[in-house]
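Hi there, hope your week has been kind to you so far. For a while now I've been wondering how a particular protein folds. I'm sending you its amino acid sequence along with the backbone structure tokens. Could you read through the record and tell me how the tokens relate to the sequence? Take your time with it, there's no hurry, and the full record follows here.
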Amino acid sequence: MRSIRSFANDDRHVMVKHSTIYPSPEELEAVQNMVSTVECALKHVSDWLDETNKGTKTESETEVKKDEAVDTYSKDQGGRTLCGVMRIGLVAKGLLIKDDMDLELVLMCKDKPTETLLNTVKDNLPIQIQKLTEEKYQVEQCVDEASIIIRNTKEPTLTLKVILTSPLIRDELEKKDGEKVVMKDPPDLLDRQKCLNALASLRHAKWFQARANGLKSCVIVLRILRDLCNRVPTWAPLKGWPLELICEKSIGTCNRPLGAGEALRRVMECLASGILLPGGPGLHDPCERDPTDALSYMTIQQKEDITHSAQHALRLSAFGQIYKVLEMDPLPSSKPFQKYSWSVTDKEGAGSSALKRPFEDGLGDDKDPNKKMKRNLRKILDSKAIDLMNALMRLNQIRPGLQYKLLSQSGPVHAPVFTMSVDVDGTTYEASGPSKKTAKLHVAVKVLQAMGYPTGFDADIECMSSDEKSDNEGKNETVSSNSSNNTGNSTTETSSTLEVRTQGPILTASGKNPVMELNEKRRGLKYELISETGGSHDKRFVMEVEVDGQKFRGAGPNKKVAKASAALAALEKLFSGPNAANNKKKKIIPQAKGVVNTAVSAAVQAVRGRGRGTLTRGAFVGATAAPGYIAPGLYTVSGNITRV
């Protein structure tokens, strides 16, 4: 399964590509003006036709008797001649892209549309347009397409097609007195198939608005794929209604909303799986009464070519090269790699020469590599502390219960700008950001600056007063390590207190986790939760551990820190200073001089068996072996281990 970060990278590329193919605001405004003007003009044409028909009907009624038979074709069925005008195609679905803006309208007629009606509408339409706007439009008829073509005369150049159709075209047979009677068609009837296609486009637009418009990223992916169909001839046969069905089915069957990059990959996966190939499930058309395959017009070769191209695009996307599919330049990484200035030492003690820092860059008095390691470790812990305790968390500790409000949201879909506000002591602070979370963080920084708190968290930890520490508003917690003797021993309190950074881990003097180091010395210890106090935003836990009959307690904002504090208290009490020699379980093998001393140290490191290499540096060769790691009955001679 791909990581979320790779999908985020795909999202960035898809949204940038979408911004380049999406029409400009000027183009969208021109489209809206042209479509609205033509719709209003057609409404006026319909009114004019009704007035003309009423005048003709009044004159004819004076000459025709009421009981005279009327031919079925010319019989007045009531209602307007032009029933209405509807948007279809890209305008209705919102799929317009640059250099591909085909505008279409359907003019619904009461009767079957004829060439005479087409000429009448074409002649009166320019007159009605001139009454509505000063812009010039060219109007011409296209009998073969059963439509009227309208073009504007200024940039951007747009073409609008108005197709005439009627519901009677689809319903050829009507019932009358229980019998089926075939209606008589007018002699100049327009192309039946063009009218049927217009009715199908109207059903497609209604289906798309009901099923696909509500799916997240569906419209964006469709615009991207329509651009792909225009650029790559292999994909051209899939353009239109089949592509919309595939995208809706691919994205709509997922159980969660998808981002633009992941939604595009899911569509490619469906096509690459072979659903277009012969023997596959096909593509059911939900807008037809009879079972219909929406891909029936495609040849086998076209289906195979599209499947092969989808598989290739899926491979490129899997290897982080989606920009090749979109034909765009790769975007720079949003999170550049951070290079650290400190060196890394491997387990064998050999440093990595490529990452080592020049010797003259370090301090003159820090020649001990252990001191450098501790100093670098402290820098890492400080940087983590800044990340984990941000301004929003600190403000919540100082003033819990603040209510953040969303004031506004602006900007395009792929680059929104949120404005958040918060009211503190009657003063309202506002800030903006690319997300609500970032905007809230910016607001918190403003509030902290206004209240006089520095924004550098390291400086906050250094400069906090004792009053702030007692009120739990800072980032340091003072943990007093109390040790009590069990069953007859008097309670003993440690004289030193441990200041624990709540943001970073607690470490011993040797740089280890206190719980792990104590477990190495005393196995099977149990930690018990003594108390849990504080609210949801300021918890405090107290843990207790019993070691050699003595109990040690530690406190912290969570159980992990409290356990580490208790373990650290036990280590400092029992295994540091003069108490270290009295609490060792096993006898220490006397240290010899010369070669024997080195051999014993090497054997101790080998028997420990915890994956650590034998250290040969002078500072560790003569060190006392840790208790509890040399099994009884073993002795060493010249570095070899022999069982007695």
Observations:
- Residues 529 and 625 are 34 Å apart (CA to CA).
- The domain at 475-582 is CATH 3.30.160.20 (Double Stranded RNA Binding Domain).
